[in-house]
Amino acid sequence: MSVDIVIGVDAGGTSTRCAAVTLDGRVAGRGRAGGANQNSSTDPGGAFRAALREALGAAGDVTVVRAVFGVAGAGESGHARALATVRGVWAELGLPGDPEVNDDVAVAFAAGSAAPVGLVLIAGTGAVAARVRDGRVLCRCDGYGWLLGDEGSAVWIGLAGLRAVLAAIDGRGRPTVLRGRLADALGVPPGDPQAIIRAVHDRPPAELGRLAPEVMGAAGDGDPVASGIAEDAARRLLTNLAAVAPVPETAAGSAAAQGAEPDREPVVLAGAVLAAGPVAEAVRAGVRRRFGVAPILAIDGALGAAGLALRQTGAPPAAHAALLAQAAPQSADPRADGTTGLVAS
Hints:
One of its GO terms (molecular function) is kinase activity. It comes from Marinactinospora rubrisoli. By secondary structure, this protein is of the alpha/beta class. The chain has two domains: 138 residues, ATPase, nucleotide binding domain (Nucleotidyltransferase, domain 5), CATH 3.30.420; 181 residues, Nucleotidyltransferase, domain 5, CATH 3.30.420. The protein has twelve helices and ten strands. The strands form two sheets. It has a five-stranded mixed β-sheet with strand order 3-2-1-4-5, with helices on both faces. Strands 8-7-6-9-10 form a five-stranded mixed β-sheet. Strand 2 and strand 3 form a beta hairpin. Helix 1 crosses helix 2 and helix 4 runs antiparallel to helix 8. The C terminus is likely disordered.
């Protein structure tokens, strides 16, 4: 007998993840494929198709009743193209209904918290900060793509490392171990700027994010140039998060008038840059210091999308929370109360 499910998809610049989830919150199937960012990936439709097929194949005899896609690059300017791509693949696979297509920001928040409102900071291939309410983005900061923004993202870090290497080669900058590390990662001689330039321009922008672990590794080893890049990335990410946060004085004044402590909205961190390493550590400390909460690490964004889809079927927020709990989400701060995102006393 067919089982009713919802579909959640999280598509970024590097990978696309899909989860098929039963209405009682059980994960029935998963799928994964390449990137589907509308601005930087080479074949978004192929990635959606492969991830959906894998997840549905694992789920077995099922009927899709709701689907939510969170797609990087599907903001206001890219939404029509993303919607057309998703609908085309959806129809090709013979799936019923009309999937909801949004960008990946609200999905990232829903992958860390089932709260109705809160803040999310994403730093993966790209970077953006936002405040989210009921599955919708209220306001955002950055997320402008690798050429105009995405400050603190993996691509931004990789490019900062490359600029530091070129400056070290031509005498403008300090010596750095990145000269050898990034040349090895690119497969070029360490002292040849033209070879570096050719290697960079031969790659899609999203692939430059693969250099970020080399920069972060050098920072962890104490290289001052790499450490400076990590510090700058964390500072920019925290500035962006502060730009979308509620004005503290407003929240405090409202609570004080009622004789209560001001509510603190949860802060969710998502993306590989914020999972571990020097940037992640600095951002976690900054969130605790500036916002008085311990940040929560998002789990697989496909489960966040599935949680939003569950809620659209009329399932209570508790079903969304239970789905997140199954995947054992962890606070980004080991001293935190993981149930509320507040710092434990």
